[in-house]
Amino acid sequence: MNNVVTSTDMQRQAQSGASQATRIEQSRAIAEVQGAIVVAQQRPRDITKAIASMTDSCRIQSLAEKAFFRFNRGGGTVSGPSIHLARELARCWGNIDYGIKELSRDDLAGVSEMQAFAWDLETNNRAETTFIVPHGRDTRQGVKKLTDLRDIYENNANAGARRLREMILGILPPWFVDDAKDLCTKTLTDGGGIPLPKRIAGAVERYAELGVDAKRLGAKVGRPSGEWNAHDIAQLQVIYRSIQNGEVQIDDEFPVDEENHVTGADLKSQANTGKKIEQKRDQAKSKAKKEPEQDQAEDTEDTAEHDPETGEVINDDEPADDTVPEIPVYDPEQTGAWLIDAQNAIKACNSLGALKAVWTGLAPTVKELGEDSRVKGLIKAKEDRKAELSKDAGNAS
C-alpha cells in the first residue's frame, strides 16, 4: 500500500518541526540566562580589581588610539568613547552580557529590524533598544541603496555597534567611564614613550599619505608643526582613526585652500625633488673643487657654461679659489626658510665661480617652484650678486 503525502501534510510537518526547534531553543536560552545570573550572584565583581584591570588596559597605546570616535553633525563635531573602549570596559567591569541581534530583514522594503542590549547580571540593570536600519549609505550625491549581502551586513553591524556602545555605557558607572577616558587621553598624550618630535614627524607622514599636507594640519591645530604639543598630536590621532573608520571625511576636517592646494602626488614629487637636490649639492661642491685645475689646463677650448635658469654664459675665467657656500637642502614643508637660506648662500659668494656652483645646486628647486612668486626675488638676488662680482672683477683687472 502506497502512502501518499500531500502538500498539506508536508506543511504541517514543517510547522511541527519548526515549533519543536523553537521550543528547544527557547528552553536552552532560558537555562543559559538563569545559569549566568546564578554565577553572577555567586561570584560578585571586585570593584578594586575592575579598576586595576581598566587602568592597565587604558595604559595600552593600541587601545588608547581607538578609544574615541569623532564625526561631523550639523556644522559641529561630535566625539566620545568608541565601541572598542565600551567593550573593554564591560570586560573589566565583569558580569555583563551584551550583544546585537537582527530580528528581521525585509529586502523588498530595504530595512532590517535590530536590537542592541547590555545587561548587568549582578544588579539586573538592563539597557535595550530596538531600531530600524535602512539598507542604504549616505553619500555626497544622496542615499545609495545597498543590495549586496556583504554591504548590508556591514551596514547593519556598523549601526548596531553604535547602539551597543550606548547600551554598554548606559549601565556602567559614569565615574568608571570618565576615569577610563582620562587615562586613554593621558596615554595618547604620553605617546608610549616616543619623543614628541618623532611623533610629530610620524603624524605629518601619515597624513601626507592621505593627501593632507603640513599646511592644512597647521590650519587645523592653529599653529605650525614646530609648535605642536602632545595634546595636539593626540587630537590628530583621534581624527586620523575616525577618517580610517569612515566616520569623518578628510575635506570636512581639513578644508582645502584652493589657491595653495597640494595633492598627495605633489607631496611625493616634492619628497623626490628634495633627494635630487641633495645629490645636486654634492655634485656642485665636487665640481667647484675641480674647477681651478680645469681652468688652468684648458687654454684653447671654449669652457663657457650656461646659467641653468637664464641660459646666459657664465664667465669661467674668474678664479674659483674662494670657498663655495653651503647649498641649503630643500624641505617641502619649509619653502620660506629655504628661500631665505638660498639668498644668504648667494650673498656669501665671493666669485663668479662660487656663484655658478651655488646656482647649479639651487636650480632644480628653482625650476620646481617656478610658479611661486617668491622665486622671482631669488633670481633677482642672483642677478644683483652676479653684477656686483662682475664689476669687482672688472675693477681688479
What does this structure look like?
With 397 residues, the protein is α+β, with helices and mostly antiparallel strands. It folds into three domains: 23-179, no CATH class; 194-260, no CATH class; 264-396, no CATH class. It contains 14 helices and nine strands. It has helices at 7-42, 47-58, 61-65, 83-93, 149-171, 174-190, 196-209, 214-221, 230-244, 250-253, 264-297, 335-347, 352-368, 374-396; strands at 68-73, 76-81, 96-106, 111-120, 125-134, 136-139, 142-145, 305-306, 313-314. The strands form four sheets. It has a three-stranded antiparallel β-sheet with strand order 3-4-5, with helices on one face. β6 and β7 (142-145) form a beta hairpin. α4 packs across α5 (149-171), α6 crosses α9 and α13 (352-368) runs antiparallel to α14.
Count of individual domains: 3
Whole-Å distance between the termini?
132 Å
Compressed to H and E, one letter per element, the order equals HHHEEHEEEEEHHHHHHHEEHHH
Structural class: alpha+beta
The low-pLDDT segments are 295-304, 314-321
Summarize model confidence as the mean pLDDT. Answer: 77
- List the strand order in the largest sheet: 3-4-5
Largest sheet: 3 strands, antiparallel
User: Which strand-content bin applies to the residues?
Assistant: 5-15%
Number of strand segments? 9
Q: Based on CA inertia axes, which overall geometry fits?
A: elongated
Radius of gyration: 35 Å
Helix content: 55-70%
**How many helical elements?**
14
